[in-house]
Specification:
The complex is a heterodimer. Chain A is mainly beta. Chain A has a domain at 174-273. In chain A, 5% of the residues lie in helices and 33% in strands. Chain A has helices at 21-24, 29-33, 46-49, and strands spanning 2-6, 14-15, 36-39, 42-45, 50-54, 64-67, 74-75, 85-88, 104-107, 123-126, 146-152, 166-171, 187-190, 206-209, 221-232, 235-246, 254-259. In chain A, the strands form two sheets. Chain A has a 13-stranded mixed beta sheet. Chain A has a four-stranded mixed beta sheet with strand order 4-3-2-7. The N and C termini of chain A lie far apart (57 Å). Chain B is α/β, with parallel strands linked by helices. Classes of the chains: A mainly beta, B alpha/beta. The A-B interface holds A 43, 137-142 and B 72-76, 78, 83, 330-331.
Chain lengths: 273, 563
């Protein structure tokens, strides 16, 4: 297990693609210290910015990194990681676990935008809040999340799971606007309330909202009322739920489940059933 | 400054030098017979290939279109970036790189002259601003004149001489180099949501046909004695069955060539060599086109080879770009450039496993290999339409090695593999022919007398590639050649060593070439014309011309016209 702690409070963003269990694996802490890292527009070595401490444990846990201290300015942490674990004690910056393919990231604090951006596999668990574009693609791209799982116990910003192609996002708090915009497959579950325009331009996939939604886009049509919905293999949402399909402006067949009891204002849809 | 490149194997097709071991002497930015060997800086090129600096006849590297492409594709910049060094500036971009990175990457490949092929006259200032910021290479731009209202009006009246005076004025006004024609008539029709289907279709409102436009501007080109021919992007580009249109276009100017001089350049011919009724039955029309080109001397063309990668397509052909958006469903930009032309941009990914893309890939190489005379076909990818320009070394490896082609064919769509002509082609180009396709032929076609060769008096633009052609069998070890072409051992521009082993050693500003056409009776900009500018353009006449001071480093070439 490697424990990293910033030597000073960072003034500039730090781009830390090298903090990745796969890269650390099999390296002594001296070697790890020599890895290249960017602080602002200066290329530095990891040991210039972080205190590196190695803690011997049993061998199985060797691919584990613990991030201590304030790293809210550290970006692209765990990008492209394939295995191992990263544990973050506090907050962390943008692009956490970008394009990761496997392994686990646990965050005890909040994360910046684009967490799990374009990820293909693995798991990210966030105890705090997440900013916008959770699991979404980089600006301009349409290759969203392609696999893996993101769990957020706090609230998330706008455009969570945009352009999602596969995978699972679970949000236990509230979600912002445009949740699941343009998704084509995969599942998004929101336990709290959800802001407007949920599922805009979705062509497939599933969005489940257990909380309150102010309005459904007019390009969605009501299909039926379901008593329950499968969220994951071993998890079922207890309804009843309104099932909407859409987005019809994109000829979409996406499914949008909205909890009936929390959304009495949507009962006017029932006359179309 | 004196320089001598020693003991390299020199390939200089214009001077008929084929792999001879010799020295190339440079003094004050020019190739000279001899220099003082004691004083001159020596570059030891023993066991290496020495060629003239590369020339690219068609590459979209600057202008409003490219810049809009940059805006449209932030994700393209994310995956490819260069940090600044002591000599270079930073930059981003894969298929639509920033101007500085464009210059550096060309220099690393040993290219020293590039031509930006589509400049809407209205956007000429923007284009020149970007060309000013494209370092390391000499460059020029072709104004789009095929759908300009005044051209269409003159041609309708059959007044070729007046049209020639106007074109001469336009080339000076936009600081252009050659006449570019894109989908003649089609772009004017696109202004009202239509297109033309054949070269004998009538252009709405003007009553001329694409044939009239091509023939008219071909005559104009001849009257003005421009160094390059008309540069034509054919009608029906990117539509199945369009090889017939390409053949018709070439035939339409058959009688206008004099001597053995070419009269027309068909650009990115791969995109207009499609045979078949629809996308399912698409096949290659390269054989028919090659047969025609082999039998006639008035045509030159460039490949427009595609590379299997994610790229950005951009042309002035608005209707074609709209079709491409409908096919791909990708984000898109489409623009009608007032009374002059149109344009469109769509990101596109060419896939090996797609039948259509695999056939397209095959067509480009078939054209290059089936056309026997290498002086008639040049290597381009129509950057970035077919793929980014820094994939050129890969294309060179396909030229010289059947083995390389076979390896690529193995990976393409199965149905396309069985219908491709490539497996039946054994031809492998030698380095002499590669030098023609990548520099000498292009320079000759462009009428650049001081580029593309290493004769005395030529510009000292030299590329040295670290591979020994007499020890390495390049048809087997094609990867060695590819690596050598990716990063030249050294690139010399204007007598200065600007790049070495992929590192930029010196930042130089290339010149912007333009044609100063001297006509006996210049085009009169009457009050009527100025009034039209006020009525139909968003830019006043006074702000329209690109003034001399606009160009950072101008290199005008004076031409005497017959009109």
């Amino acid at each position: 297990m490697i424990i990293l702690r910033p030597k000073v409070e960072f003034r500039y963003p730090v781009v830390a693609e090298c903090i990745n269990p796969g890269i650390f694996q099999g390296k002594a802490s001296e070697e790890i210290g020599k890895l290249k890292i960017w602080e602002g527009n200066k290329e530095k070595r990891l040991r210039d910015l972080f205190m590196i401490r190695e803690q011997r444990e049993n061998r199985q846990n060797s691919a584990k990194i613990v991030m201590d201290g304030n790293i809210s300015k550290v970006k692209r942490l765990g990008a492209y990681m394939k295995n191992g674990t990263i544990e973050i004690q506090g907050d962390v910056g943008m692009h956490l676990g970008e394009e990761m393919e496997g392994g686990e990231i646990d965050v005890n604090g909040n994360v910046g935008g684009w967490a799990g951006s374009m990820m293909k596999g693995g798991t990210i668990r966030i105890k705090g809040n997440a900013d916008g574009h959770l699991g979404g693609p980089y600006r301009g791209s349409n290759k969203g999340m392609q696999g893996g799982k993101i769990e957020v116990h706090g609230n998330v910003g706008n455009e969570a799971g945009s352009y999602m192609r596969k995978g699972m996002i679970k949000i236990y708090g509230d979600a912002g606007q445009f949740t699941g915009v343009r998704i084509s497959n995969g599942t998004i579950y929101v336990q709290g309330n959800c802001d407007e325009r949920v599922g805009g331009s979705m062509t497939g996939g599933k969005i489940i909202i257990d909380g309150h939604v102010r309005a459904i886009l007019p390009t969605f049509t009501i299909e039926s009322v379901r008593s329950k919905v499968k969220i994951e293999d071993d998890e079922v949402g207890k309804g009843p739920y309104y099932l909407f399909t859409g987005d019809l402006s994109e000829n979409g067949r996406g499914k949008l489940y909205v909890h009936k009891e929390k959304n009495i204002h949507l009962n006017h849809y029932e006359r179309f059933l | 400054m004196e320089l001598i490149v020693c003991n390299g194997y020199v390939y200089d097709p214009i001077n008929g030098i084929n792999g001879e071991k010799m020295d190339v002497a440079v003094k004050d930015g020019k190739i000279v017979e001899k220099v003082d060997e004691q004083r001159a800086k020596k570059i030891d090129a023993s066991g290496m290939i020495v060629m003239p600096g590369g020339v690219d006849i068609h590459t979209h590297i600057a202008g409003s279109e490219v810049n809009t492409g940059r805006l449209l594709r932030p994700e393209d910049h994310r995956k490819d970036y260069e940090a600044k060094t002591a000599t270079t500036r930073s930059g981003v971009g894969y298929s639509v790189p920033s101007t500085f990175v464009t210059g550096y990457r060309y220099a690393r490949m040993g290219y020293t002259t590039i031509m930006n092929p589509s400049m809407p006259p209205l956007e000429a200032k923007h284009t020149h601003e970007e060309l000013n910021d494209t370092p390391m290479v000499d460059k020029a731009s072709y104004p789009l004149l095929g759908d300009w209202w005044f051209v269409l009006e003159c041609l309708k009246q059959g007044d070729v001489k007046e049209c020639a005076r106007f074109v001469a004025w336009m080339i000076r006004t936009t600081k252009g180099y050659a006449i570019k024609i894109v989908n003649p008539g089609g772009l004017e029709a696109w202004g009202s949501g239509r297109n033309v289907d054949s070269i004998d279709d009538t252009v709405p409102r003007f009553g001329v046909t694409p044939r009239d436009i091509i023939r008219g501007l071909c005559k104009v080109n001849k009257l003005l004695n421009l160094p390059h021919t008309i540069h034509v992007h054919t009608n029906n580009l990117g539509r199945p069955g369009n090889y017939l249109t390409a053949l018709e276009t070439m035939k339409s100017v058959e009688d206008l060539s004099s001597g053995n001089r070419p009269a027309i350049h068909i650009t990115h011919c791969q995109f207009c060599a499609f045979k078949g009724e629809d996308w399912r039955s698409l096949s290659s029309g390269a054989e028919e086109i090659a047969r025609y080109v082999n039998a006639h001397s008035h045509v030159t063309m460039d490949m427009g080879q595609i590379i299997f990668t994610d790229t950005t397509t951009m042309t002035a052909d608005g209707p074609f770009q709209y079709t491409l958006f409908e096919l791909s469903g990708n984000k898109w930009v489409n623009h009608d450039v007032e009374t002059e032309t149109a344009s469109g941009i769509v990101p596109f990914t060419y896939r090996r496993k797609s039948y259509v893309n695999a056939i397209q890939w095959s067509i480009g190489l078939e054209l290059a290999l089936l056309i026997e005379d290498p002086w008639k076909i040049f290597m381009t990818t129509d950057h970035p339409n077919g793929g980014p320009f820094f994939c050129y070394p890969q294309i060179v490896s396909w030229f010289v090695s059947r083995k390389a082609r076979d390896a690529a064919i193995k990976r393409i769509n199965k149905r396309a593999r069985t219908r491709s002509l490539l497996p039946s082609i054994d031809r492998e180009l030698d380095l002499f022919e590669v030098a023609i396709l990548t520099r000498a032929g292009q320079a000759k076609c462009l009428g650049l007398s001081s580029k593309g060769h290493l004769g005395v008096g030529a510009d000292a633009d030299i590329a040295v590639y670290a591979v020994n052609p007499f020890e390495t069998d390049i048809s087997v070890h094609y990867q060695a050649l590819r690596r050598a072409f990716e990063n030249s051992f050294c690139t010399i521009k204007g007598g200065h060593v600007v790049a070495r082993d992929g590192e930029i050693l010196e930042h130089t500003e290339g010149a912007t070439m333009w044609i100063d056409v001297n006509v006996s009776e210049p085009f009169a900009v009457t009050e009527e014309i100025k009034k039209r500018f006020r009525e139909y353009w968003t830019v006043e006449y006074e702000n329209y011309p690109v003034t001399d001071s606009y160009l950072k480093s101008a290199k005008p070439m004076t031409v005497k016209a017959d009109v």
